[in-house]
Design a protein that fits this description.
- The chain is α+β, with helices and mostly antiparallel strands and about 200 residues long.
- It has two domains: about 35 residues; about 140 residues, lipopolysaccharide transport protein A fold.
- The protein is built from one helix and 14 strands.
- A six-stranded antiparallel β-barrel has the order 2-3-6-7-5-4.
- A hairpin with a 2-residue loop joins strand 10 and strand 11.
- The model has no long low-confidence stretch (mean pLDDT about 80).
Length: about 200
Amino acid sequence: MSTVLFKYIKAAGSFFILSLLIAGCKNDIETIQALTSESNLPDVTGFQIEMQYTDSGVLKGKIIAPEVYQYSKGEDPYNEFPRGMTAVFYDPAGNETSFIRANYAVYYTKKQLWEGRNQVYGENRITGEKIETDQIFWDQKEKRIYSEKFSKITNADGIFTGEYGFDAEEDLSQIRLKGYSGRVTIKDEPADEIE
């Protein structure tokens, strides 16, 4: 009788282990389906893209990026630039005035708001001012660029920092630092010779 009982326990144990394996596989399949569901995938994917930003038919800027994912479903549609992007701004004559480069960016379509993150660098080609920060926003409606993170500006007069970020015009002109401090470069002028 112990042999029959042993076979019964062995069969019940095998069935129990098999049930656990099947249940485990079901959870993994559900996880995979959740990760690859259509709601998580972009509607459009683009590579080596260049988008133009115009106002009344005049070129105001260009967005250049190696990769973009467009998510247009849901209440907050957005475009994601996982490998970064560069925004180039132009004057009415078509001359480049400034640019901003970020290692990661998102464009919120309804708000017309850009967010750049991770080693953001900008330069005003006219004044020579350079700006560095970890996060930047470009509000297309308000035509302004700003940050609430520590920012560093370098120009001919020295290096200046904004502990709480900065605010500027869309072309990176008229930069105003928040929580300002800096180092000013003083140029030595030759002394007048006395005869």
